[in-house]
Amino acid sequence: MTAHAAPPDRPPRSGTGLWAQVAELAEEAERQSRDGVSELAPVDAALARRIAEDLAEAVGPGTGQEQLTVVERLERLREALAVLALGIARSHGHLAWFLARVAMVLSPVLQWSSPGAEQPRAFGALVLPTPDDLTDAEDAVRRLRSALTHTDAGTGSSAAGPGSGQAASADGRPATVPESAA
Questions:
Q1: Which H helix or E strand runs over 3?
Q2: Is residue 161, in this structure, part of any structural domain at all?
Q3: What pLDDT, on the 0 to 100 scale, is given for residue 159?
Q4: 168, part of any domain
Q5: How many domains does the chain have?
Q6: CA dist., res. 174 & res. 62, Å (int)
Q7: Which of 159, 135, 6, 144 is nearest to 62 (CA)?
Q8: What is the distance between the terminal CA atoms of the chain, rounded to a whole angstrom?
Q9: What is the pLDDT of residue 40?
Q10: Structural domain for 100, as ranges
């Protein structure tokens, strides 16, 4: 990745959900690419797409997630964080910084306790996440996957934005598409 300026040192806006924070980071990456601040080398673009594939496999489709148990959903989210950790280890420059910032945003997932945890609050684990917490985190991973999927070396496109062809709901989240239509 060719770097033309230092990455911003401000954290994502606080007080917003995980999806909103990841969306903000993805939009910032898209802006940096579009403005020529950073450009992915072909090897980094290929790595970004591979990470996107692994994230999609880890978190699964948006439909049907409500039928999974909390434990299964937490396992999938933790797997997504493992994918991010490996991606950070294998990347450099702006891609590594972007992935690291997203991992920091998603880190609360690691503090969520699962039902039947032997010792409540063991090692600082918080109470059970709500279904909305889980959905927000899963949607955040899907937003990251979308951004990484639309990464192209040298094209000025590094994240999925409004013109990415992905249907969105009123708040900008991906619209739920039945699996049969996907």
A1: strand 2-3
A2: no
A3: 39
A4: no
A5: 1
A6: 9
A7: 135
A8: 32
A9: 87
A10: 16-33+41-149
In the prediction, which pLDDT does 25 show? 95
DSSP, res 8: P
Give the integer Cα–Cα distance in Å for 125 and 108.
10
**Does residue 161 carry a pLDDT above 60?**
no
Question: Which pair of tokens denotes residue 41?
Answer: 């080398």
Tens-place pLDDT, residues 150-159: 876 544 444 3
Q: Is 126 helix (H, G, I), strand (E, B) or coil?
A: strand
The residue written with tokens 């503090």 in the block is 111
In degrees, rounded to 5, the angle at the alpha carbon of residue 112 between the alpha carbons of residues 107 and 115 is 155
Query: Token pair of 97, please?
Result: 């910084």
> Is 87 a member of any domain?
yes
For residue 41, give the nearest of 123, 155, 125 by alpha carbon: 155
CA gap 111, 167 in Å, rounded: 32
Task: Check whether 169 has a pLDDT greater than 90.
Answer: no
Q: Is residue 156 part of a domain?
A: no
Distance, in Å, from the CA atom of 80 to the CA atom of 83, rounded to the nearest integer, reads 5
d(CA 19, CA 108): 12
pLDDT at 49: 95
Quick check: 33 and 157 in contact, CB under 8 A? yes
The predicted structure's pLDDT at residue 17 = 94
